[in-house]
Amino acid sequence: MTISRSARIGVVTASDRASAGIYRDESGPAIEAWLTRCLVTKFEILRRIIPDGFESVRDTLVQLVDVDGCDLVLTTGGTGPSPRDLTPEATEAVAHRHFPGFGELMRQTSLQQVPTAILSRQTAVTRGQCLIINLPGKPASIAVCLDAVFPAVPYCLDLMGAAFIDTDPTVLRSFRPKAG
Amino acid sequence: MTISRSARIGVVTASDRASAGIYRDESGPAIEAWLTRCLVTKFEILRRIIPDGFESVRDTLVQLVDVDGCDLVLTTGGTGPSPRDLTPEATEAVAHRHFPGFGELMRQTSLQQVPTAILSRQTAVTRGQCLIINLPGKPASIAVCLDAVFPAVPYCLDLMGAAFIDTDPTVLRSFRPKAG
Amino acid sequence: MTISRSARIGVVTASDRASAGIYRDESGPAIEAWLTRCLVTKFEILRRIIPDGFESVRDTLVQLVDVDGCDLVLTTGGTGPSPRDLTPEATEAVAHRHFPGFGELMRQTSLQQVPTAILSRQTAVTRGQCLIINLPGKPASIAVCLDAVFPAVPYCLDLMGAAFIDTDPTVLRSFRPKAG
Predict the structure, then answer these.
(1) Quick check: B177 and B48 in contact, CB under 8 A?
(2) Alpha-carbon gap, residue C136 to C129, rounded angstroms
C-alpha cells in the first residue's frame, strides 16, 4: 500500500447556544474523541461551531468541502422538530447524491433506546469527493449512531476517491468487501 | 403546569368512494376512536372527507393548517400504488420539513403483518407549527401505525411549539426525554 | 380469470465495463434466471446493457416504459458511492411517484449480510403504469433483494393497472390482500 495522505475531517456543531457561548459545546468534542479512539490512520480535524439555521449550515458545509477539501464532514445538532432545526435541509441543499441508508440505520438503532428517534431527520449525502453525515445533538446518541454507520465509511471513501482511512478492529470493525 | 389550550386535530379521509357517498367512511371514525381512547388532554377534531387526488388533498391540508390552525393532521387513504393515490405527493407539496422516520417505522411495523406494506408511501411532514402524518386507508392498519409512531408525537408537538397533548399511559405510553 | 397478456419486463444492466465488452454481464442474466424460476405467468424480457451515468440510464428507462410498454423494469448497477453511480438519480428523474419502502427493505435485508449495505442508494418508482426497481450490481445480492421485495410486486402491478403476473408459491410466495 502506498503511504496515504492524512484525511481531513470536518466536525460541525450547529447550536445557537453553543455558538453564542451560552453553554460549552460537548458534541463536537464527543465526535473528536470517538474518531481518536477508532481511527488508526492519520487525520486532522477541522472544528466549526455555528448557529443553527439553513444558511449557516449550508455555507459552512460548502466551505469545508469546496475550500478546505474535507473527505468527511460530521455534523451534530439541528436535526429535530424545533423551528431552528434545519441541518438536514442545509445538507440536502449542498448534496450531489443522497444516501438514505445512513439515516434509516441511525433511526432504527436509536429506536431501540427511545421512541422519539423517529423525530430525527438525519441524512447523509456526498458533495464531490466528500461524505457528509448528520449526527444527533446529544453526546450519548452520537456514539450510538457512529457505531452503527461508521463500519461502512472507510469503504465508502475508497469508492468516492477520498482519503484512505481505517479503524482499529478491536474498537470498531470496518468492512471492505472483496473486489468484484 | 399552566392550563393549556385544546389541541386541534384534523382528520382527513381521502377516498373517491367515501366522499361520493358510495360507501361509509370507516377510517376517519377509526382514527377519532383511537384518539379518544388514547388522549387524556383536551382536543377537538376537524373531520374532512374528500376525493383522492393531488389538488384535493393539498388544498385541504393548507386549509386545515393555515386557516383552521391545526396542531396535528392525520390523513387516511391515497398512499398506495393506484393511479389516484397521491396523498404523499400532496403532503410533500405543502411540507416545510420532512420526517422520514415516521414512514420508515410505519412500513417496518406493517411488514410484520403483510409483505405489501412496502407499497405504502406514507410520510410525515411539518408545515409551520403543525405535524401532518399520513396513515394507511384500512381501519385495521390505522391502529397498528398509530400505536407505532404516536409515542413520539406529544414531544414532537412540544418542540414545534404546538399545543400540549398527552396520552393515557395505561393505553399508550408516550415519551418526553429529559431536557438536555 | 380472463387470459392475460404477456408481461413485458425490462432488465437494464448499467455498467461501463459490461457495456464496453470488457467483461461479461452476469447481473442481467442473474435477474432473468430469477424471474424464470419464480414466475408462472407469461412474460417477455427486454434486455439492455448500457454505460453507467445519468443520461444513459434515464433515456433507457424512458424508452422501455414509454415506447416499449414495459410493466416492470429491473435495473442492476450504479447504486453505490462511485462517481459514475447515478442510477438512483436517473430513476428519480423519470419518476411519477416514489416508493421508498422498496429501498428501505432491500437495505435492511442486505444489512444482515454486510454493513456496507447502507451505501446502496436503491429506490423504486412508478412511471405511468410501470414499476421500476433498482437492484444492486452483484449477482449474489440481486437474489437477496428480489426475494425480499418481490412478494409485493404482483399486487402492486394489479393496483397500477399493469399486466397480471404471479409467482410459483413453492419458490416465492407473493401476496394479494383480500379486496377491501
Answers:
(1) no
(2) 23
Question: Is domain C7-160 in CATH 3.40.980.10, yes or no?
Answer: yes
Judged against a pLDDT cut of 90, whether residue B158 lies above it is answered with: yes
Q: How far is B151 from chain A (nearest CA, A)?
A: 6
In this prediction, the answer to ipTM > 0.90 reads yes
For residue B91, give the amino acid letter: T
Taking the model in full, what pTM does it have? 0.96
Interface residue B175 vs chain A (CB under 8 A): yes
The interaxial angle of helices C139-149 and C100-111, nearest 10 deg, is 120
Q: A4 touching B, CB under 8 A? A: no
Cα of A152 to nearest chain C Cα, Å: 5
C-alpha cell at C177: 390482500
User: DSSP assignment, residue A66?
Assistant: I
Residues A4-38 have pLDDT tens digits of: 789 999 999 999 999 999 999 999 999 999 999 99
B140 to chain C, any CB pair closer than 8 A? The answer is: no
With a cut of 90, say whether residue B180 has pLDDT above it.
Answer: no
Residue A175 corresponds to which amino acid?
F
Domain boundaries, chain C: 7-160
The alpha carbon of residue A99 is apart from the nearest alpha carbon of chain C, in Å, by: 6
The C-alpha atoms of residue B101 and residue A120 are separated, in whole angstroms, by 7
Amino acid B4 reads S
Minimum distance, in Å, between the CA of residue C81 and any CA atom of chain A: 6
Instruction: For residue B17, give the nearest of B50, B39, B58, B43 by alpha carbon.
Output: B50
With beta carbons under 8 A apart, name residues in chain A contacting B175: 114-116
Task: Out of C108, C152, C159, name the one closest to residue B115 (CB).
Answer: C152
Contact yes or no for A159 and C121 at CB 8 A: no
Alpha-carbon distance C153 to B115, whole Å?
Answer: 10
Nearest-angstrom CA–CA distance, C63 and A39: 47
Nearest CA among A89, A156, A153 for reference residue A123 = A89
**In B, which residues are within 8 Å of A115 by CB distance?**
151-152, 174-175
Q: Do the Cβ atoms of A36 and A11 come closer than 8 Å?
A: no
- Which residues are CB-neighbours of A139 under 8 A, at least 6 positions away? A26, A27, A30
Distances (CA, A) of A25 to A19, A22, A149, B68: 8, 9, 23, 40
CB contacts, 8 Å: C98 with chain B: 88, 121
- Beta-strand relationship, C43-50 and C7-14: parallel
Q: Which helix (H) or strand (E) holds B72?
A: strand B72-76
Are the beta carbons of A114 and B175 separated by less than 8 Å? yes
Q: For residue A104, give the nearest of B97, B104, B152 by CB distance.
A: B104
